[in-house]
Write the structure tokens for this entry.
Amino acid sequence: MEIGFFTTIGQRVKFFREQKHITVNKLATLSGVSQSYVRDIELGKKQPTVEFLEYICFGLGITLQDFFSDNEKDDDLTKAIKKLTPQQRKMLTAFLESLHPTDEVQ
Amino acid sequence: MEIGFFTTIGQRVKFFREQKHITVNKLATLSGVSQSYVRDIELGKKQPTVEFLEYICFGLGITLQDFFSDNEKDDDLTKAIKKLTPQQRKMLTAFLESLHPTDEVQ
DNA sequence: TTAATATTATCACTATAGAGATAATTTGTC
DNA sequence: GACAAATTATCTCTATAGTGATAATATTAA
């Protein structure tokens, strides 16, 4: 995975698209936007609105939060954390506190 | 904190702005964008580009990832997780696996 | 090779993002 | 109350986001 922190929007779109092994054309169709637009985004020739980047994220099968997260590793952890029940969540908080004795977590 | 999942962009901007106890005017100055623009965003009358939402997030003192995260609780956990050393990270992974015996984490 | 099909590139057009100026309104302080 | 300073509302204008049509290029099959 490993997508860097300082990549551009276009680079990130392309990265996630190639993850899915689909063409610009296909992504455009899945997203419900024009092909020329997806192309311009990837090339950095257009600055997408949040609204349209959301469409593209939908086409990519990810959320905006996923899109802007620093790396996929963190995302997997986040996803795992979101599956937790409230009780398990408390256990996790306690666990993290045990790793950071001084800091207060949560 | 507790900002909901399905709020609009404008509602989220306003939420974070009021968290900071600053005016629309001040946020615009901090963000380096016009006051009328921040106003329109909050009212949902304009759909900001990612680029300009990023400016506003800077003015709010948060990241785009923070902006799109479902709630602050998750963010605190994420922040705590990011402080971990690689070894501690492995411990966390093992911990999460112990909570989800069937799923594969990481 | 040629034909058929999918993908990418280019370009002109319309809608709207974003700025800037200023009027209206609010929030003080005297 | 009146006056000053800040905040918000409104409006016009320019730059650019996003589309659609089509040309160019690549891919596959026969």
